[in-house]
Amino acid sequence: MPINKVGVMGSGTMGSGIVQLILQNGFPAIMYDINEDILEKGKNSIVKRLNRLHEKGRLTLKELNSAKSNLTLSTEMKDLNVCDLIIEAVPEKLELKKNVLEEASTICKDHAILATNTSSLSVTQISTSVEKTEHFIGMHFFNPAPLMPLVEVVKGVKTTSSTIELVMEFAKQLHKTPVLCEDTPGFIVNRIARPFYNEAIRIMKDQIAAPEQIDRIMKEAGNFKMGPFELQDLIGIDVNFSSTKTVHEGFFGESRFRPHPYQERMVQAGLLGRKTKKGFYDYE
Ligand SMILES: NC(=O)c1ccc[n+]([C@@H]2O[C@H](COP(=O)([O-])OP(=O)(O)OC[C@H]3O[C@@H](n4cnc5c(N)ncnc54)[C@H](O)[C@@H]3O)[C@@H](O)[C@H]2O)c1
To answer: What is the ipTM of this complex?
Structure first.
């Protein structure tokens, strides 16, 4: 059965971005979170961004109004029982994800697909909490979800081909480029990104070059949009360190994914990047 109505659990950075994407492509969405204030905040950011798209001429007034009226907010999980697809975008904590998905799997339609937006946890491990593991999949959107074209569609060990086909097709209807991945640590992008960040820190600590130099070389000579230090400051040193640890553990401690101890020191010192105004760079 094709996907029409979508539920999104979590209305933070990713949840609200994914909901916006669904709405602006003409599908109805139910956004679920733990309380109304949080949901209202998520809704306001969505409406603001949709209005901006209309001002820029990228959504007609009719499309704008229809997108707004297609949004339903809920703090009751049972309201997601009308959805064909439920995407989980709660914080990156295994037990939390398993708990919300376990509950969702008890209320959802028989044919419903459950998806996780996890960045680095095992899709197969998360899926053990749901009743129908064959209908479970990873849909890894990138931030900001409405703008970034890539979606990694992650096949758990028991995910069926019909589930994969439906999700790949739906991602295309959202005008994304879905890429099918095996359920390996970091999938594709986050795995490639580990040595990008790790080696940059090692080069800095080996006193070969300073962050400013490395970022400049990668941008000017390598044509990267941002250098590894600017990017880590943007992502958050703590968030990036946690992803590195998860990928390193996922590969049973393979040394090529080992974090640098300095990352941990930065976290301990509260040097978390842009959000604390200090990371590899200072921000005012
Ligand atoms: N932020 C990114 O750049 C990014 C990119 C790709 C994937 N991800 C992944 O997306 C997921 C969400 O990340 P985020 O950055 O949007 O987090 P966030 O902290 O911005 O949002 C999480 C939301 O989940 C809600 N929540 C917490 N417990 C809940 C529960 N029991 N039921 C329902 N909602 C609950 C919170 O209230 C919050 O609104 C994580 O798994 C993260 O790894 C994040």
So the answer is: 0.99
